[in-house]
């Protein structure tokens, strides 16, 4: 009987284990003489090269940034800047936000038509005080997002605070998941905001949860400041 081909992930696990066993080096390595340390790091380099060579798949990714801590939008905008730096087109669609122009939008304006930025919210629910208006704005933002999600010329689409729109019930999870399925094969999409639903997390390729340990507003009464919050 011919053995079934090994799953590529199963083939890669020994390399991952070897990398973990060899460690990251520095003071964590047990060797104390330079020659022994160099041998360990040479082996670690070989294993890392094999790990990279074994993983050559390219695809459009779903990236979710969620959690109670700061930095979710900032992480998404880091992807925006990196993608723009490679000469690719990017679209940012902001849900909920839009009552003010953030510093990032001003700074990234230098990229001109390479970046399309749409702030299609009107602020926090306690400021807008109008559920139907909020729902209408979310629908407008989603329709605009779908234009970019279906455009193969757009390398990255950032859906900022869409997780909040999902949590508030202004758009259905089924609608969002179906829209993400319409992307061209190499288009990435990043979704930010607190309380990403479990189904979205399960469908994502990368999920990062920001954890709040300390916050100056909560512990010290420090207001939102330019360059930090907006």
Task: Offer a few descriptive terms.
230 residues, alpha/beta, six-stranded parallel β-sheet, disordered N terminus
Explain the overall architecture.
- By secondary structure, this protein is of the alpha/beta class.
- It is built from 10 helices and 6 strands.
- The protein has a 6-stranded parallel sheet, with helices on both faces.
- The chain starts with 7 loop residues before the first helix and ends in a 10-residue tail after the last helix.
Please sum up the structure shown.
This protein has 230 residues and is of the alpha/beta class. It has helices at residues 8-22, 34-54, 72-85, 103-108, 125-128, 131-149, 162-167, 173-181, 198-203, 216-220, and strands spanning 62-67, 89-94, 115-119, 154-160, 188-192, 206-210.
